Amino acid sequence: MSEIVIRDVKTFVTAPRGINLVVVKVETSEPELYGYGCATFTWRHKAVVTAVEEYLKPLFVGKNVQNIQEIWQSMMGSSYWRNSAVLNNAMSGVDEALWDIKGKLAGMPVYDLLGGKCREGIALYRHADGKNWEEVRECIYGYVEEGYRYIRCHMGLYGGNLDSRQVLVKPENAPEGAYYNPRLYMQSVVELMDKVRTEFGWNLEIMHDVHERLSLADTLTFAREMEAFKLFFLEDCVRPDQGEYLRYLREQTSVPLAIGELFTNQTEWRTIIQNQWIDFIRVHLSDIGGITPAVRLAHFADVYQVRTAWHGPNDLSPIGMAAQMHLDLAMPNFGIQEFSGFEDAEREVFPGCPEVRNGYAYLSGAPGIGTGFDEKLAKKYPANENVNFGWLFSRLPDGTPVRP
Ligand code: GCO
Ligand code: MG
Predict the structure, then answer these.
(1) Separation CA 173–CA 175 (nearest Å)
(2) Ligand 1 centroid vs 313 CA: distance in angstroms?
């Protein structure tokens, strides 16, 4: 069979739920053979499109589509400086599309290319939130009725900045921003978790996402306070550049620790996994470069009994969600899958979205990634040019910027 090569690489930006998603299409020398991959870095989507169109496309058209590993390594080295979210997302779009193509060529879903299923369904967790207990409680009941048994519990998104008790005394001329009071945030979560356990008992697995909102000392205090509620995990206790502190946390608290959605470089996870300072690795597949590096990461984590909990927010395309669900099915060290739902418009633009029933996701078993992309329909939902960046400017009461 003559070599099948990359003939063209195209990018699409679509926002079916108002969130900019980036899709990459790899077309091949076989007219009807093509693949799609997710390259969604929603806060810098134009930069990702430029990286694909201006660099990866001219450099990689003509390459043999079968050689995914060689192409991935070459893409990584082709910018010399590497491991940025923008370049990794661009690479992910091509990489996932190549896995989609390989599955189509083999007549197999990606999970079968990875060794087949370890489980039939993918357990999911959802986000419960609200501006007070009543709203959070109602949200949890809603998910429980749908069959979910894993719920991330918040009251006021990250930093609890909707709690009416938040006393924020700002200085004069304080700049705009998403202000929060760390002390009140911590206390509001302790009270929230107590209410959750009292109302829902121990049959529910619950998590919380600190989202790097606390100082190192407060993180330890907070982790210890969370022990009483037996969380499934406490997420993003520290910033990616503070991995060493996880050793200190690990030695002083039994709360299960999860981190990874902000990782872009294997140096950020290598040590914390090898030393078993965490329980769950939570990278966003396209932020580390796609399926190829994620398979390596999952196998590496498995050696140290660290489980996967891939990042599954609403700023991830259904193709990206489906891509990580193939790993969820195939990897022995699957932990849990974060899931933010598929809205009707997304199901329309991305035919073949994974099905969700009773708290589990199911893949169709179609060859490749199995979730497609309707290029024509996607135009109905053009890029959102009025993105709200507000929440990214989080600040302490005195206005000090905090990395969100
Ligand atoms: C999560 C994440 C997200 C991120 C978002 C950033 O645990 O799902 O923290 O909510 O904040 O993906 O764009
Ligand atoms: Mg998070």
Answers:
(1) 6
(2) 5
